[in-house]
């Protein structure tokens, strides 16, 4: 999974990149808010295009740079630095672009990296003390990316292998999160082992894959000799995989299979916790953005829907009631006040009137000078709203606004 990291006021922050992309700027409705006069309100955007990640200048006053080169848009690679005003934003994407589960494909095994000694791999004992140590360590991570790094360190500690990878399920597709040693191209992974592990919901060991899966072209092409594939199980379903293999004479054994299964079970628990934490954080940010325009309960429902489905619902044609309100004699009044007094007056007025609109389930559409436009009867989330009911809500809100203004 790709992410952006940036230091804001001395605090290093990381932002996971999702299908919506990440918008960067000074305004509060951005995903990454950079409060600096050099940064435009809506300065830049980092977004996905298929399997590629691009940085785009949104017509900002001071532009953007990638690796110190001024660009309008640029394809990002792992380690690239995006410059927005005085802020350096690092792009991180250490996994391969994709994993292809296809028995007609193969992947080359890297000869570099740590070599496993000849003969039988050393046995390790995962006693209760070690089990507690791993669990305590994984529990200390809140950021999903840092947690996955720690998981793979424990995998290598428990089952040394020439190659290992961690994949998570996303939209019914296994997405590579970490591959060791790193690779830049697509990786073809045999479906033979992964399918068996997912279907059985348990770790699968092959001492000699060429014998155990004699008909698999991908295993033969890749020269896989010994491999273990352990599913990450959450609520009885495989939400990902941890995979290790070796092309040499070294053979994994049942003990190492059990070790990897134990680490995978622990990892699945903490990965699910980190995912939930990330989802709650995203939902809180979305709710905060929505609350600027609608009542808190509607904002909560919209944020929850977006987190669950990755998008808002399709456009609807509805009969709604629209309320317009402004300050009588505002032009003449503003001529007698200083600019600061006008600002304070409007801020207080908008705050009070918006609270009244929200209390009658209205949605703020916009502020127009000293005017307010609000909509009643949309969005319709839980159940349809009768047009008469929305009209009554609008009238009640108007009366409430008059009463609040008198106070």
From TrEMBL:
Single GO MF annotation: adenylate cyclase activity
Q: InterPro entries from the xrefs?
A: A/G_cyclase, Adenylyl/Guanylyl_Cyclase_3/4, FHA_dom, GAF, GAF-like_dom_sf, Nucleotide_cyclase, SMAD_FHA_dom_sf
Lineage, highest ranks first: Bacteria, Bacillati, Chloroflexota, Chloroflexia, Chloroflexales
Q: Which residues form the FHA domain?
A: 22-71
> According to the lineage, what is the superkingdom?
Bacteria
Q: Signal sequence: where?
A: none
Which GO terms fall under biological process for this protein?
cAMP biosynthetic process; intracellular signal transduction
Show where the Guanylate cyclase domain sits: 321-407
What the entry lists under PANTHER family is as follows: ADENYLATE CYCLASE, TERMINAL-DIFFERENTIATION SPECIFIC-RELATED, TWO-COMPONENT RESPONSE REGULATOR
Q: Which PROSITE patterns match?
A: FHA_DOMAIN, GUANYLATE_CYCLASE_2
Name recorded for this polypeptide = Adenylate cyclase
Supply the SUPFAM superfamilies for this chain.
Answer: GAF domain-like, Nucleotide cyclase, SMAD/FHA domain
